[in-house]
Write a structure and sequence with these properties.
2 domains, alpha+beta, 14-stranded mixed sheet
C-alpha cells in the first residue's frame, strides 16, 4: 500500500477526525473537540493524516498541542501528542511510525523546544521502540480507598451479610485517617476565575532542574474553568464537577489543589501545586479526603511521576502506588534529549491531560 502523510485542519477536516475518533476510541469527543483543537490559549494545534495515495482514504491521524512549560527555569513552548489513532485494519507499525515522525517536524523546524507523548501501555510503546526511543519518566497511579462497599459488592455480591462486612471495613479505613493541621494555614474553596495571584504563584515556584507545565491564570482557566464536562450524575444526584481548594496564610496564596468528583464515585486529584508544597500539600489532600468521606465517595486517586516530589506528598497523605499509568517519551533535536533526560520530570495529571 502506497501511504503518505499530509497536514489536516481541525476546522476543514473535522468530520473525518470525528469519525476516526469514534472508530478508534469509541467516542467522537464532539463536545470537547473545539476545546482541544481550537481554544487552546497556547495556540492552534498541528494535525496530520496518514492516507492511501491512490484511493485518498484516510487511515489515521494525530495532533500535537502547544503547551508552555518550564524547562530548567526557562519558559518554553513544547508540544504534547494526543489523539493518536490508526484504523484497526491498518495498525501495522508503518502508518504509526509515519504519524509519529510527523509530530517531530515542528521540533526540527525550531518551533517547539521538544514534544512528548504519553503511551499508557506496551502496545503504544512499540512505535517508539522502532524509532529507538526510550521513556524519559514513568507515571504512577496513587490510590487511597475511602469506602469498601462497591469493592466488596463486585466480589461478593449484594447478599445481606455484605453490608455489615462493608461497615466493618469502612470503620477500619476511617481509623487510618489523620489531620495534619498547620498553624495559620487556611484552606477554602475557590469557585471563581483564576486571576493574577495564580500567575504570580506560578512564577514563584522554583523550576530549576525540573520540567513542569506553566500554570498561569490563562492556562488554568482553560484547563479547569472552560473544560466542557459531560452532564454525568454522581450517585448522590450531583453532577460531575471540577473543584478547587486554595491554601492561604495571612491571605496570601501558598498552594492549590484541583480535583474532579466523578460519576463512578471516585475523586481524581488533577493538580496539586504551589510553594511550601512539602508541608502544605498534605493538608490540601486531607481536605479533599474529608469531602470524599462526607459525600461517600469510594476512593481518591492521583497520577504523578515515579519517585518525584509529588509522590512523597501523596504518600504522606496515605495514597499508595498502584499500577503504571503511562510512560512519557520525549523527542528533541540532537543533544537536547540528553539534557531533558537529566532533568526531573515534575509531571502530574496536569501535564498528561492537555
Amino acid at each position: 500500500m502506497n501511504l503518505a502523510i499530509r497536514p489536516a485542519s481541525p476546522s476543514e477536516d473535522r468530520d473525518e477526525m470525528l469519525g476516526l475518533f469514534e472508530r478508534n476510541f469509541g467516542d467522537t469527543f464532539e463536545q470537547r473537540f473545539d476545546w482541544y483543537h481550537l481554544l487552546n490559549p497556547e495556540g492552534r494545534c498541528w494535525t496530520w493524516f496518514v492516507y492511501e495515495r491512490d484511493s485518498k482514504t484516510v487511515l489515521g491521524t494525530t495532533s500535537l498541542y502547544p503547551r508552555s512549560m518550564y524547562v530548567d527555569g526557562n519558559l518554553k513552548t513544547v508540544g504534547q501528542v494526543m489523539f493518536f489513532a490508526v484504523d484497526a485494519q491498518h495498525r501495522s507499525l508503518g502508518p504509526a511510525v509515519m504519524l509519529q515522525r510527523a509530530t517531530f517536524e515542528p521540533v526540527n523546524r525550531g518551533e517547539l523546544a521538544f514534544c512528548y507523548d504519553c503511551p499508557p501501555h506496551d502496545e503504544g510503546m512499540s512505535t517508539f521502540a522502532r524509532l529507538g526511543m526510550r521513556p524519559s519518566c514513568e507515571m504512577i497511579r496513587y490510590v487511597l480507598p475511602l469506602r469498601s462497599d462497591e469493592y466488596l459488592q463486585k466480589r461478593l455480591g449484594k447478599a445481606a451479610w455484605t453490608r455489615p462486612l462493608a461497615s466493618g471495613a469502612n470503620l477500619l479505613l476511617g481509623m487510618r485517617r489523620s489531620n495534619h493541621k498547620l498553624p495559620g494555614l487556611e484552606i477554602s474553596r475557590f469557585d471563581g476565575a483564576f486571576g493574577d495571584e495564580f500567575s504570580r504563584l506560578d512564577k514563584l515556584v522554583s523550576s530549576s532542574g525540573v520540567i513542569r507545565a506553566c500554570r498561569s491564570a490563562e492556562v488554568l482557566n482553560w484547563l479547569y474553568r472552560q473544560f466542557p464536562l459531560m452532564p454525568k450524575h454522581l450517585p448522590n444526584g450531583d453532577l460531575e464537577a471540577i473543584h478547587v481548594l486554595v491554601a492561604r496564610r495571612c491571605g496570601e496564596i501558598l498552594a492549590f489543589a484541583v480535583f474532579l468528583t466523578q460519576f463512578d464515585n471516585f475523586i481524581s486529584i488533577m493538580d496539586l501545586f504551589g510553594t511550601e508544597l512539602e508541608s502544605v500539600g498534605r493538608p490540601l489532600i486531607e481536605a479533599i479526603v474529608e469531602i470524599g468521606l462526607r459525600d461517600k465517595m469510594q476512593s481518591v486517586y492521583a497520577y504523578c511521576a515515579k519517585d518525584g516530589q509529588l509522590s512523597r506528598i501523596l504518600g504522606s497523605a496515605g495514597l499508595r502506588p498502584r499500577e503504571r499509568a503511562a510512560r512519557v517519551v520525549a523527542y528533541a533535536n540532537g543533544f537536547n534529549v540528553e539534557h531533558l533526560n537529566g532533568l526531573r520530570w515534575a509531571f502530574s495529571q496536569t501535564e498528561l491531560r492537555g
